[in-house]
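User: Hi! I'm working on a homework problem where we have to compare a predicted structure to a textbook description. Could you give me the structure for the chain below?
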Amino acid sequence: MDVSAFTRAIAEPDQPAAAFAALAEMAAAGPGVKLFTALTIDQTAGLLRRSFSNMPDAYPAGGTKKIADTTITDLMLNGRKSVLSDGPDAVKENFYDHELIFSLGCESCLNVPVVVADEVIGSINLLHAAGQYTPERIAMAEALIPFAAAAFLIERQHGGALA
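Assistant: Happy to help. Predicted structure tokens:
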């Protein structure tokens, strides 16, 4: 994990894009990703927004939508736990856009909540082949939480509030 690259990225003027891009690179080098997205979460407003994607043609950043009432949402927002959907059946069960996910060569999704000051402010979502996210790789993904928190807080500082 190249912390120095992230440190340089957060000093760049192109924020929060530079911070999220560096975070995606850390995820690729650590637990591994094919698709990496970051979702900003505003529980008070009941909204989320895709703030970053390393595959913007398939999953563009921007736009807001209502937070869906799903098992994953409950585990992340209330349980504050990472959620692994591993294998085609789990992805199909948990994601309405599973066909697009499969077309990108992904059959597993790890959603990691980012909690700051007792508030889930976002999630980082790592997608890869089935079986990619072992307990060790999940721990590596969770080690990215402080860096993700910095990226989400930079986004807030630069007018990224949802409400």
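For your comparison, note the following. The mean pLDDT is 94. The chain has one domain: 3-157. Good luck with the assignment!
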